[in-house]
Amino acid sequence: MQVIFKIWRQNSNSEKGSFKEYPVTDLNQDMSFLEALDYLNEELVLKGESVIAFEYDCREGICGQCGVFINGRAHGPHDNITTCQLHMRSFKDGDTIVVEPWRAKSFPIIKDLVVDRSSFDRIIENGAYISAKTGTAPESNSLLIGKELADKSMDAASCIGCGACVATCKNASAALFTSAKINHLNNLPQGKPEAHTRVINMIKQMEAEGFGHCTFTGACQVECPVNISIANIAEMNARIVKAKLLG
Question: Does the model's pTM come out above 0.85?
Answer without folding.
Answer: yes
